[in-house]
Amino acid sequence: MVSQGIYTLANDVVYDQLIALLNSIEIHVSSYFPFVLFLTMTV
């Protein structure tokens, strides 16, 4: 289990914005930074 990194929870409404944020962090902070994404789908 990764103890350091970014843990996120998002639903499908904000999924695209979350991916853009994670891509920005990867570019500006580090290309090797662990991300854990929990995605919930709304019906």
How many domains is the backbone divided into?
A: 1
Shape: flat
The helix-and-strand class reads: alpha+beta
Helix content: 25-40%
Q: Report strand order across the widest sheet.
A: 1-2
How much is the average pLDDT? 75
Beta-strand content estimate: 25-35%
H/E element string? EHE
Characterize the largest beta sheet: strand count, sense, and whether it forms a barrel. Answer: 2 strands, parallel
User: What is the overall number of helices?
Assistant: 1
Cα distance spanning the termini? 31 Å
Radius of gyration: 11 Å
Low-confidence runs? none
| Strand tally | 2
Short description:
The chain is of the alpha+beta class and 43 residues long. It has one helix and two strands, in the order βαβ.
Written account of the structure:
The protein is of the alpha+beta class. The protein has one domain (6-40). The chain is 33% helix and 28% strand. The chain contains one helix and two strands. The chain has one helix spanning 15-28, and strands at 6-11, 35-40. It has a two-stranded parallel sheet. Helix 1 links the parallel strand 1 (6-11) and strand 2. It is flat, with a radius of gyration of 11 Å. The protein starts with 5 loop residues before the first strand and ends with a strand.
Topology:
Blueprint: E1 6-11, H1 15-28, E2 35-40
Parallel strand pairs: 1-2
Features:
single chain, 43 residues, alpha+beta, two-stranded parallel ribbon
